[in-house]
Please model this.
Amino acid sequence: MPGTTALKEWSVICSALATGRQSILLRKGGIREKRGEFVVEHPHFFLYPTAFHQDPEQLIPEARTGLETLEGAPNGQISIGLYAEVVALWRVENLEQLKALSPLHILAWKTIESRFHYKNNPWLEVLLVRVFHLPSPMMISELPQYAGCRSWVALHEEISREGTTPVIEDTAFQQLHQQLETRLGRSGNE
Model:
């Protein structure tokens, strides 16, 4: 029986989400995505940290220095320690609006520009996610069907959300949501 849905994201981004440094995801899509673009197929999911395509040059300098200290799971294993819910979603078609989000994430500006212009189709999805810590990370086996340039994976293991705690307390998260609505307008999923 299939288990739980997970979103693959760079390990360094997962680390920023785990500390509250970042609560947004900026997505465009990959080679194996349907129609070549990212779609929020699942409004809640576990985060699957990966080093696939992770590149220090695509990060702001302070995130690069922490990259070598990131502890990975043993070879062939993935540590699932975060659960997330999509609270708001925006399709941003104005590059200047994305520039205003720079303090809210760890991606370098050239990375944002590159993703925005990917396939000469100027837009980027901005997801506000509420992230929760699992009581303790669960180690799962990295199976061949999880590999490759895909966003969503159906894990074969069941993972419980019971006992999760939010990374950011309620008031601070509501303020962040309001800040994003001020910069980007009302989200497309409200």
